[in-house]
Amino acid sequence: MRKRQESGRGKEELLVVSNSSVIIAFVKICRLDILEKLFRKILIPEAVWKEITVENKPGSEKIVRADFIDVGKAGNKRLVALLEEFVNTDEAEAIVLALKRNADLLLVDDRDTRNLAKKLGL
């Protein structure tokens, strides 16, 4: 599992956190490269990594080889558990990781998740 190295970000480098559905959608259309071109780096929580790199899952080998996708710990298990009352685990961890790392952008496709993230200041 890759870990994002802690370093200062330049003005042009956004800290982007994603849940699984966004990455899976781009893998399905064979255009994972678009995410890399748009964001240079994407940070995902461990739950997302586990979901999208399941052995024999179509496209998982492309995700494993994608150097621009880094994995981070969401931490704050209590907040993750609370958010899981409203959204899936990968979405809850993505929100918590985005909050923890003060992300510039959270990539999610689910309306309820987006609304929850907005309420939490993302």
Automatic annotation (TrEMBL):
- Name one matching Pfam family: DUF3368
What is the name of the protein in this document? PIN domain-containing protein
Species name for this entry? Zestosphaera tikiterensis
